[in-house]
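Input:
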Amino acid sequence: DAKTTQPPSMDCAEGRAANLPCNHSTISGNEYVYWYRQIHSQGPQYIIHGLKNNETNEMASLIITEDRKSSTLILPHATLRDTAVYYCIVRDPLNTGTASKLTFGTGTRLQVTL
Amino acid sequence: NAGVTQTPKFRVLKTGQSMTLLCAQDMNHEYMYWYRQDPGMGLRLIHYSVGEGTTAKGEVPDGYNVSRLKKQNFLLGLESAAPSQTSVYFCASSYSRGGRTGELFFGEGSRLTVL
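Output:
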């Protein structure tokens, strides 16, 4: 699986959009981009994933650059409850040989403030 | 709708003791994983399984053993606990096919302290 690079921390004012970047310059053609978040010490929670098209769901939007070397997770109206560590991961979900490389790194700690 | 359930949620061990963490999922997922998370660090993969009866090593497998005798259960064993194994352990499961392929569902974690 491709390695990802994320900033260690970010701040965002409540009600504003939070834009969390992720670099994955070595991503291969079959690898998807996944985003998870971990609130306090709970188990990580799936947010969204995509291959090359932008994606949107009830939680967030995912913007993937045309060359697929980076992506941005957008929380359109951040709330205090969005304070968490956000992890960006790339993997080929159908390649069982890459399952051993499914590690999460240290992610981006997003602090939403009043 | 239980999802992924881990037992126990808390445990204190003495050095050298053994124990088993149980992970159960009711979503008929093929893949299951065990992670550990140390303070201020990300999740590191210990062992994983791509199906009943199969297991494989992850990033930090030493000191742990696993078994997947039934599709819905994935056991993580510590034969001789060491203080370095003090951590929070997370189990996860995922589909191998279909529209939600690759999405991991996590349990709430098991906090283990080895004295």
